[in-house]
Amino acid sequence: MLERIQKANDIKKLAPEELPELAQEIRQFLIEKISRTGGHLASNLGVVELTMAIHLVFDLPKDKIIWDVGHQSYTHKILTGRKDGFDDLRKYGGMSGFPKRKESACDAFDTGHSSTSISAGLGYVCARDLQKEDYSVISVIGDGSLTGGMAYEALNNASRLKKNFIIVLNDNHMSISENVGGMSDYLAKLRTADFYTDLKKGVTNMLHNVPVVGDPMIEHIRKTKSSLKQLIVPGMFFEDMGITYLGPIQGHSIPMLVRALKEARKIEGPVLLHVLTKKGKGYEPAEEQPDKFHGIGPFQVETGEPEKPKKKDSYTDVFGKVMCDEAARNDKLAAITAAMADGTGLARFRKKYPNRFFDVGIAEEHAVTFAAGLAAGGMKPVFAVYSSFLQRAYDQMIHDVALQNLPVMFAVDRAGLVGNDGETHQGIFDLSYLSSIPNMVIMSPKHKWELADMVRFGISYEGPIAIRYPRGSACDVCPEFRSPIEYGKSEILYEESDIAIIFVGHMFEEALKVREDLKEKGYDCSLINARFIKPLDAKMLDRLTKKHRLIVTIEENVKSGGFGEHVSEYLMRIGADVRVQILALPDDYVEHGNVDVLRKETGLDVESMTAQICKMYETM
């Protein structure tokens, strides 16, 4: 069946009895390909039939499908003729693991963060109606994304629509980790409301048999706000907002899904179709551990075990262990996550200190202000979050934490280049946006021992502080470089003359190698660990200007507003007779690919950096 899917809408050429076979082939294809390349498996296995049904009912690219987060769009990519791209999935220059407008006209909107699809879909609907165009807009949002406040802002706004707008709620009980909160409980009750579904069918069938008045009565019940479902399920949330609710629908039955989508397409105004799916469906290891298979590297299909077992502790592991150790000594320490307990290393903390662990759902803005409230109430909150997701809470960091100088610690995971997830997930802006906030202290460790020391320092610090560290195995070279941390002080590893390299955090190993290469070429070179991005160690910079002609900064952050620019601005302000060279990422979005490849492409690999430094020094 897969060979017959070469472009969008080819699925419509298949006979109904062939569709289950296509679903099975898609699952086998995804398991086989992702086992080699890595990627998001469980979420994609769960939406195979749903995606097929959407493609059967609607016409692409005329109709617009917007995938919330977008990591579940693999079947959509297959059905729009991109099957061959899976050999290079998430590799540099290859197919993205998320929807990309530049990749296909069938990708209506670029996504990567949560809770955005209803807002984007609503924008499409209004643009369509203003321009008197005729197409359907379908926003597919997972139930985990309904823990994000932006989704409710959009639902509130959508309730005023008079024209059709379809919201598909993919209810699989999960976001990345298991769902939490009131909406999760509410949906769980709806899932079990079989009595309502059965009664609705019975009443509808009965009315169909009533001559003359039966069908108009059904239509009246469907349209009125005081609908049958509200009588039977009191306080129907979506209906109360003015959004027609259909469901729950079995999400792995293509005929049922097709019928429901066709029904949804007829409704004037916004309609929410509630679909029940199973994350990881069709692959037993993913069904049993959907969180493990949400995003996974290459694995063995037979067992589900990773192809390359993890050998070294990651920075995330180190953070999690220190948090547990410190919580045993400090009963005011609390941990917060935005639906990422496992991903941020807090799963162990959750088990050991459940009363001091808070999963707020995919709601970073709320998490930050909640942390501010905890801090104002006398606790020491630590919010562990991925760098690219913390961007969503910039206002709350300024207004609710830093303005009051509250002791909230931000554990900024996945800082720098994260690789295969691409533009929406690279943590390359945090130094810029964090350093613009008054009262904020920013640190970054060079290796795993320094991260442990920084976490302890951060917990004891009486003000807002962020510690940024990367994805992957923690650096474990040079344990001898571990001097005590002093507020605002950098660390001299080697002191010579002529050239001084100041590196930020996990660029330590690259900076060491650059220095070695420069030494081989006959240059004297000092090496300094910045430690603190903010505040700048002005005394250290003053000291360096006396013996060095060139000061080089190395950071895995965009150049604009980053560490290097702050160093350059300070030295220019004091009139230092020294050249500054900033080695940073370009002021651009960095696409998906292996981190080593991306560093090569952006000039942050050892060879490129050494060449740039030599060229600069020779022109002085």
UniProtKB/TrEMBL annotation:
Superkingdom per UniProt: Bacteria
Cofactor-binding details, from the entry: Binds 1 Mg(2+) ion per subunit. Binds 1 thiamine pyrophosphate per subunit.
Annotated positions binding thiamine diphosphate: H71, G112, H113, S114, G144, S145, N172, Y283, E364
Cofactor requirements of the protein: Mg(2+); thiamine diphosphate
SMART domains per record: Transket_pyr
Transmembrane segments: none
Domain Transketolase-like pyrimidine-binding: 313-477
GO terms assigned for molecular function: 1-deoxy-D-xylulose-5-phosphate synthase activity; magnesium ion binding; thiamine pyrophosphate binding
Entry GO CC: cytosol
Record's catalysed reaction(s): D-glyceraldehyde 3-phosphate + pyruvate + H(+) = 1-deoxy-D-xylulose 5-phosphate + CO2
Keyword Membrane carried by entry: no
InterPro entries reported in the protein's UniProt record: Dxylulose-5-P_synthase, THDP-binding, Transketo_C/PFOR_II, Transketolase-like_Pyr-bd, Transketolase_BS, Transketolase_C, Transketolase_CS
Biological-process GO terms, alphabetical: isopentenyl diphosphate biosynthetic process, methylerythritol 4-phosphate pathway; terpenoid biosynthetic process; thiamine biosynthetic process
EC number: 2.2.1.7
Pathway the protein acts in: Metabolic intermediate biosynthesis; 1-deoxy-D-xylulose 5-phosphate biosynthesis; 1-deoxy-D-xylulose 5-phosphate from D-glyceraldehyde 3-phosphate and pyruvate: step 1/1
Ligand binding (Mg(2+)): D143, N172
Sorted UniProt keywords: Isoprene biosynthesis, Magnesium, Metal-binding, Thiamine biosynthesis, Thiamine pyrophosphate, Transferase
Role description: Catalyzes the acyloin condensation reaction between C atoms 2 and 3 of pyruvate and glyceraldehyde 3-phosphate to yield 1-deoxy-D-xylulose-5-phosphate (DXP).
HAMAP family cross-referenced by the UniProt entry: DXP_synth
Subunit structure: Homodimer.
Family (UniProt): Belongs to the transketolase family. DXPS subfamily.
Protein name: 1-deoxy-D-xylulose-5-phosphate synthase
Protein species of origin: Dorea longicatena
Native organism taxonomy: Bacteria, Bacillati, Bacillota, Clostridia, Lachnospirales
